[in-house]
């Protein structure tokens, strides 16, 4: 149900940018429930508020408000997860030796691994690279790729099986 703005242009036609407060009153419960199903109730309300705040910054096409709100809400959630992950990521200090019992791979091993990973099917390679090299969790990868967590788990399992088979060959 499109929300009409009470504001009018000088020519008398309705303003294409609806009142965000009216949108909030109409769609906030739906956006909160949408986010809670995906990310949990704890952060859903904060993400919903940030979604509507972001709507005030850009002119939008309001022909399909729920799909627009869902896309903006998922973008807000992805940004939140990225910021949260960046805060938790350990900082590597240059010059520190690797932990005891761990030897860094030599150039040849690294090159072989890159070649084997590059030969994976794209959907498997993307998930593998985001997990192993991007440091993303399966939930973050799911949001980033627009797929479910179970699909991420399945793709990661397939990628690992293919990598193991190629290393054995």
Notable features of this structure?
disordered N terminus; single chain; 169 residues
Q: What does it look like?
A:
The structure is a single chain. This protein is elongated. It contains seven helices and no strands. It is mainly α.
| Terminal residue distance | 58 Å
How would the global form be characterised?
elongated
- Helicity level: 55-70%
Strand content: under 5%
Total number of helical segments?
7
Largest sheet: none
What is the total tally of β strands? 0
* Unreliable residue runs: 1-16
**Nearest-integer average pLDDT:** 78
| Order of H and E elements | HHHHHHH
The rounded Rg comes to: 22 Å
What's the short version?
65% of the residues lie in helices and 0% in strands. It has helices at 20-39, 41-55, 65-88, 107-118, 122-132, 138-145, 149-168.
SSE blueprint and pairings:
Layout: H1 20-39, H2 41-55, H3 65-88, H4 107-118, H5 122-132, H6 138-145, H7 149-168
Helix pairs in contact: 1-2, 1-3, 2-3, 5-7, 6-7
């Amino acid at each position: 149900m499109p929300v009409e703005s009470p504001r009018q242009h000088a020519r008398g036609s309705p303003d294409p940018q609806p009142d965000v407060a009216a949108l909030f009153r109409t769609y906030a419960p739906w956006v909160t429930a949408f986010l809670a199903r995906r990310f949990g109730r704890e952060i859903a309300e904060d993400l919903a508020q940030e979604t509507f705040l972001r709507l005030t910054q850009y002119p939008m096409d309001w022909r399909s408000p729920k799909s627009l709100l869902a896309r903006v809400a998922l973008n807000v959630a992805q940004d939140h997860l990225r910021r949260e992950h960046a805060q938790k990521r350990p900082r590597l200090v240059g010059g520190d030796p690797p932990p005891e019992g761990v030897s860094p791979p030599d150039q040849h091993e690294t090159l072989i691994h890159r070649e084997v990973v590059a030969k994976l099917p794209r959907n498997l390679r993307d998930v593998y690279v985001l997990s192993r090299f991007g440091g993303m969790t399966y939930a973050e990868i799911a949001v980033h790729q627009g797929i479910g967590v179970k699909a991420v788990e399945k793709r990661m399992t397939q990628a690992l099986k293919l990598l193991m088979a190629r290393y054995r060959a």
